[in-house]
Amino acid sequence: MTQPTSTPAPSPEGKACQLHPQSMCPAFGALRVLTRIEGAHPVMASDTGCLYGLKFVTHFYGARKSILAAHLGTEELMAGEVVEATRAAIEVAAQEPGCQLIPVISLCVAETVGLPEEMLPKRVGEAEVVLVRVPAYAIHSHPETKDVALAALLGKLGSPPAERNGRTLVLLGEVFPADPLGIDGLLRQMGVEGTISLPGRSIDDLRRAASAGAVAPLHPFYKQTLGVFREWGVPVAGGAPVGISGTYAWLKAIGSLLQLDPAQVEATASAERERAQAMLSALPLSGRILVTGYEGSELAYARLLVEAGAEVPFVSTSIGPDPLVLPDETWLRARGTRQVVYRKALEDDVRALDEYQPDLVLGTTPFCAIAKERGIPAMYFTNQLASRPFFLSTGMAATLSFIRDALGRAERYEWMRDFFEGEEAARG
User: Do 28-139 and 283-417 have matching folds?
Assistant: First the structure.
């Protein structure tokens, strides 16, 4: 039976549950964005436990600088020294060479979540100070904390210009580094003068984003960020350059929003559609795949796999339902996808594993472990799939080649299952 997409996944006790603490603190998504900005030196306002865990995870995921923070243990928190300690940390951050921006991240610790912005400096030396509130208990997934951080920065640093650059496009989404370059190159063939990729490393990109002619969310969960762009009057292009029909429709939509030459847009879009069709013909898929994860791009990946010939009866994601996701969901349901679960829990994925008996699982680490125990090929969606090129025909080639290879490993997984079951029996 298809689960209503607007209903939260039930807990094991049968109660509707909005929060499933089945992963690390999602605040690391915001820190991942903030630590990568050149000239930014983040300050964290939280207790020492959160500081330790989040600094470790953030550096594991590629942070290139330290995160400054005052020591806020139980004694300091109970003494009400949060504001004073945070101001002191800001002063230290401002002394860092080249510091232009100090994001102050307040987490969901009771004493820091309500950190009063008016009691923090707006600027210290050459650096602007931006308060970024990340109440992690109220945010389901780490991608959505990227949205929180980016919206806070844009709201403080950006402002609508007197004149808009009608042929510049903002690409919104943290994607494989080669993808924005490929998209930019193709868009320039249509007459686009330039693209701005957010979240990125440049403070200047944050300042000039409001002048763009349109914004294209490559991932659909940037709700707060898109709210800022809509306040600026910047139009939003739905969809993404994924697959044959999706890429063609997306390129046509960009051409329309930026008022590019229709003939030039059609020629570019048609040529890319032909390349995508050739790629799908060269790399067809056959098999039943479950697409699950917490990146927010699961529906788009499922769409590509279905277009290539795979059966995808079940898709789950940690993000919530949104109008930007609805076209992909509708497309998938019309082509055999029986369940699309938002705000999913591990239990949802396991039930799907029992019901659909897939040939391949794309999912989180704990879910992949369960599939492997049953001898089913399983790949960690984030590190093994989302870390590859994905968009346009070039990204399609990288993704489909990987999936075809994974589908061909069934015998190895069955052998490993039988081997470890034999070892366990021998020990028993």
Answer: yes
